[in-house]
User: What shape does this take?
Amino acid sequence: MATVHLRIGDLVWGKLGRYPPWPGKIVSPPKDLKKPRGKKCFFVKFFGTEDHAWIKVEQLKPYHPHKEEMIKINKGKRFQQAVDAVEEYLKKAKGKESAHVSDDKAKTDKGRKAPAKPMKIIEEDDEDAFKGGSSDKEQTDSDPEPSSVQRLVAGTVSGFKWESSPASSMEPISKRLKIIEEDTGSTSIQAADSTAVNGSITPTDKRIGFLGLGLMGSGIVSNLLKMGHVVTVWNRTAEKCDLFIQEGARLGRTPAEVVSLCDITFSCVSDPRAARDLVLGPSGVLQGIRPGKCYVEMSTVDPETITELSQVITSRGGRFLEAPVSGSQQLSNEGMLVIVAAGDRSVYEDCSSCFQAMGKSSFFLGEAGNAARMMLVLNMVQGSFMATIAEGLTLAQATGQSQQTFLDILCQGQMASTFVDQKCQNILQGNFKPDYYLKHIQKDLRLAISMGDSVNHPTPMAAAANEVYKRAKALDQSDNDMSAVYRAYIH
Assistant: This one.
């Protein structure tokens, strides 16, 4: 494959994971945004959106040579708006160039030749190019103009060969850029659920309720509101509702009141006990259930709890769906969760626009209980993996090896992933701000081990990891991120 020589100012087609190629421009990153380690990459601002991302060089193609090809294979409305924005940008740039040429000619006629300022080519090891950035004026003049696009077209694009990569090509964006994105009402570049038409979301006209505004629930509700859903919220700690009321949500005084006011009510709480109490307790969900009311349990709990809740909800004429989510606080905020659902298929279909708003994909697994089983298996693997990574980091240190070098090598191999990179970097920086609570992953491991016992299936790896997390909890790490399991190895 021929080497692609790119530089700041170049127009490109950038590919984010499995999403369609999108037109953008290589720009200087903000001064406080570090260049990701590993493969050569460029900071790209995308046309037709207000999104920025670090894109690996193998996921970039020059704009003009591939323009006709891209237009032929991608016909979405959002895509066309982005291409139109490129053309408008080119017209403005051409006008400025003509003005500069005239000015240079006048200077030359007077015997003062204006030297051309070369465009600096960014090399992989050229850190200075990513430290200096550009002046505010240069950035304003060169950046693509944003539009009101909220979602991009999803799907696989045929006929365009991109080098495959085990890790996502979109790196985390700085907190400052994320705040700008939230203030303007735009969303991250992402795929909507497969049921979305041309990447757009038409919010359901059903009234939505949401119970539980923790790490995951807060991001979910925020995205539901952004996509135009009518949402009524409740939280055990009422103060957490205030921000969402300011964003347009309505306030429910009790879970029962929320259910009685809404057509579909979601809940996302910490564990099986909290899920039962929410439904069966005083002023609980069950008191508001009437025939036709829908209840969607998004908490990660055991299959037995799901079976119990399904039975009591349907006994009152309600409709039940379980829909736990795979992800983290960051993915919840970005609307990039994976939803695993089971139960009443008609409720799953009624929740289509909600799932599109909160996640990048959703799966329906049949009868109630199946989603709980699948989610426990997924979290068992994730929790065990995190414990193993922490064990590797501490063993490297104990044997005189550099932990940073261990991470650098790991991120160049087959296990490279955003998860590994972010968790390890946080560990090395001593940053254990919760993205997924350690106490919750330990709960998931415990439930997965119990599920294994119920079918006489051995889970020795999960059992070993569970003991390490229990030690971390004893070291007062429960409310830190799951990566704080690292501290169980150093105390």
About this structure: Residues 113-161, 163-199 have pLDDT under 50 and may be disordered. The chain has 19 helices and 14 strands.
